Structures
1.
Amino acid sequence: MDEVIFNRKPGLRVVRGPDWEGQDEDCCEGHVGTVLETGGQFGCKTPDKYVTVIWDSGFKGCYRAGHKGAYDLRVLDNNQCGVFHLSTKCSGCQDRDIKGFRWKCAICPSVDLCTACYMSDKHDSIHVFTRYDTPESDGVRVPPRCNSENDKQLAMGIFKDALVTRGPDWGWQNQDGGAGQTGKVVNIIKWDRNYIGEVKVRWKSGSEWSYRLGPDGKVDLKCVVASTGGYYYKSHLPVVGKMKNDTNETPEAVTENYRQILRRSALSAELTSCDPSRFGVGYRVVRGPDWNCGNQDGGEGFVGTIAETLGQGFGKPPINFVNVIWDTGSMGVYRAGHEDKFDLRVFDIGVDGTKHESVMCDSCMMEDIRGIRWKCSQCKNANLCSQCYSDDRHDISHQFLRYDSPDPKKIFKVRKRCESQKVQVMGIFPGATVSRVREGKCDDDYAGNGNVGRVVSIADSGKSSFRTAVTVQWPSGSQMTIHSGHNGNIELKCVKAAPGGFYYRNHMPIFGKEPPPCAAQRERFKVGDQVKIAVDISQLKRLQQGHGGLPDNMNQHLDSVGKVSRINEEDDVVVKFGDSGPYTFNPAGLTKVKLKFPNDPFAPSNPKDGCSSRKMAKTSSHSNSSRGSSEMSTPRYQPQCKICLEQDACITFIPCGHFASCRYCASRLTNCAICRREITERQLTFIP
């Protein structure tokens, strides 16, 4: 059966779709209707790329199913069209030959769900599923249900306990007791061997009869009082008239790809830095700013390991998601940028071998700090490793810079520890009791199934992977060093967690989110600095979120030079552009404007060039009395505007005579940018 035609077949039960423009002719969002006719077929009245729908309320309308790229409807259920998956049993309700959509877990090989069980959150809601619309269709992956809570919608219409009356296709004489009589829906079952579209109604007379709701596009009833039909995840449903076929894999092949997530020892992580915007297998993580998955991690502070970074072609799972195995043994898929949501923070990046050469921790004396480096911004050469930083070594009232890698450009300022919230770390740390997982490769003589060992210490997996193994003592007394994150290889799970210190929640990198590239510039600005916007308007809009927003008139200041009036308590920079402002800026969006130029006699002299400076002063001393007039008549040639450093200079300031600005910048200055004298006149000057 052609999938596109099937996706518009009469009998489909539908709800509002992504491009819905109708009013409340369906009653309201969530109310269900039935496709009566699809356009583009011989003899039908419905236009091509449209479908005619009758809503359970009785209203009939025509809706777009691809016309000019617009889609008004989603398919809620297709089992009324005779779809069933032979010999596939639902793992939830145990119904054989799943009717309608088949939902296959992409992680557990034997789990299939019918639509009712899938939408009622049977099986683990953190697992990714693949939807199969028909037995022949390609699988379409959908995000984990735990990450789609805001996408849930209650279905309403002709369901059990709804009150109904005669509908448009009624042909059953007076079984209902006569026109206008109402009955109550007792059950919805199958119309014949293939169709689940029979509605059993008990009329006021006490008689019970069955009627069609979808089979062959026939609807015998309409709703008087709607009933609830459970919830559905809007974005998990197919769109009427549109097929999203992103893979040709069989359900078994999809599952096998996901099962490899737990066998990561064969897949190396190509990581050279700890930039948290680069997904890293083996990173140790904790819950992040957008976490909405309850206590799947064991509770705030519990640590997990990234076992697979999704969206990179390996089995083609969803983009901007990652798979995490928590120390408790549970596993889930979490957002790392999907819809601009970030569920995780990075706790430790030792797996990628990040080392800060020749930088020693001032507290524990660790040479070549491994992982994240913390540098005091107030004390010269004061550096801490992550452990000592979280243990409050050094003055906690001092502000620190976070170095995510040896790259000097990857520096990020964090708040003072005395003003920040601490969280205790829990998981596989010294003192924890652990057991092997199924995928572990430990010697059964030491760690057979069911044996519990005690973690003695945290170890390295080699010279380029730090803190990615643990030493465990088993009941036999023997000790083994076992992988715990190296290349995503997880061989242990926690039976009883142990504390592993603390971390400052908002000081840790957000996994999958690249911090502003110039965040370290915050400490460079001071009151009185001349600054300009350093990014384009789209970047500025992103940077300004949470930093004062983007004013409507900001476009006119993109090329202007402003003055820093103050630094607020959040380290944001407050700037005035002449008489306009003040405006609050994320410091990552600003850059200083340097006003010292080699040909400027009013600029401070270079101490390394004292002789030439003295010589210049001696040579020019005889003309000091006439400096103003000579400069005004013969302006000093400076080819570039000293403000924007982009346009040619064409304006001479009077009375000082400095030739220093383009027209645009000159119109916004009240004082000369070189000598600070007040400008009384601006003279357009052309250099031959």
Note: The chain has a mean pLDDT of 77.
2.
Amino acid sequence: MIINPGLLKHNIVIYRYTETVDPEGFKTKTHKVVLKCKAALEKYQTTDSDFGATSTINIVRPKIKCVIRFADINNNDTVELNGIRYSITDIEDINFERRFLRITLANE
């Protein structure tokens, strides 16, 4: 897949929870910056039925897809975009080339 480098114009920061031990010996969870990078964004909406297949109630949740250069991230990481934290719901290696990742983000 060929990506126009001009589309990678949105700054994102990827965080990971890390457990550290403070000087007093207590374990604390903190956010650690894993990666600061540029991303290409694409907004879309999905409808999730939280009440089963026979229910008529659908909940619309806005999600964002972003494309970044390949990095070592996982579904437990969080992404900050324009001061808003998003959780990662899906990570896809585009064409299995290990060049670009398509990440699906949802509001926390």
Note: The chain has a mean pLDDT of 84.
3.
Amino acid sequence: QLAEGRRSCEEIDRQNRQSRAEKIFGRAGIQRLHRGCSFANYRIQNDGQRHALSQAKSIAGELDTGCTNFVFSGNPGTGKNHLAAAIGNRLMNAGR
């Protein structure tokens, strides 16, 4: 019975964590499509995207120190949404 109760508690904890994460992502406006976006899975196809990735990582670091605004601009299909979501995902996963 004890082991069964422990498994039940662990499952409830897992469901609660998942529910909290869903609420956080929902409030952040990050859609399901972009919830898996990270710097690691951003596909670089040219030097411009390499530079954009570097800048996004820098912005993520600056947000930890108080910078609160940034703007991405560029042509369609260059990864702006992916990088913005990667920044948000990194911050939320760090509890920010």
Note: The chain has a mean pLDDT of 84.
4.
Amino acid sequence: MTNTHVSRLRHAISMLLGLVLAVGSLTACQLSAGSEGAAYAENCPKHSKLATAVHLDVSGSFVTDQVDGQRLGIVRDAIGRTAACGGHLQIRAFAGSGAGTAVLYDDELHLKGSTETARLRRIPALIDSITKQVSEGYTNLPTMTGGTDVVGQLRGDQEYAAQLGSGYSLWSITATDGLQTAGVQWRKLTESGTAEAQAKGLALADLSGTNAEVLFVGIGNTTDSDAPPTAVVEAVKSFYRVICDRLAAKRCDVATDYTPIGG
């Protein structure tokens, strides 16, 4: 074999290896995207779409300069699961109720594609796109003053679910330190017994018929320099556990740390 033939053979082998590596890289990316989408698709309600409501607490004790940490994980999961299951996504920042809220995103999510796999592969890019939009809106929020009405956000959920109708199941996630000040004597939330008593007397939304999943997460994680004592955190959790018990929800959980879907 001449030197020319050897050179041509090496060039052909090099091109073939490059093609194999490129195809392998593309396949790995597609598998990764598909796997991420599949994790969300495994968590869909039966026989309905999702009505997803995300509430980000921006009151003084919990506000941050940008969507990061747990909030970022919540936003990304809310986008991914809603897109995979089909449904409507609403993301709000809040301090109080009514005028004390701001809409960061509000739209129906629908994935295009001829197959389920093709649709699920679109999820990571959609997550990035909507997260960017939400982050920009969050960064430019005006300062919200007044009391903190965490529980009051559920009344908005009730109206939201009613507007969408019976073909949707409500998924409500509230990222908050849990320091409710509206309608309660918040200084009494520092002891479990008095916290539970106040939760029992608070007017609540009616989520019956919404097939609701409700999560209060971030409880005790204030952005103040001094973290609250463990006993106070447990008292605030007790307050929300009573709220959960009173809600007509399929599931209601209270947590300090967020567990990502598939994580």
Note: The chain is about 45% helix and 15% strand.
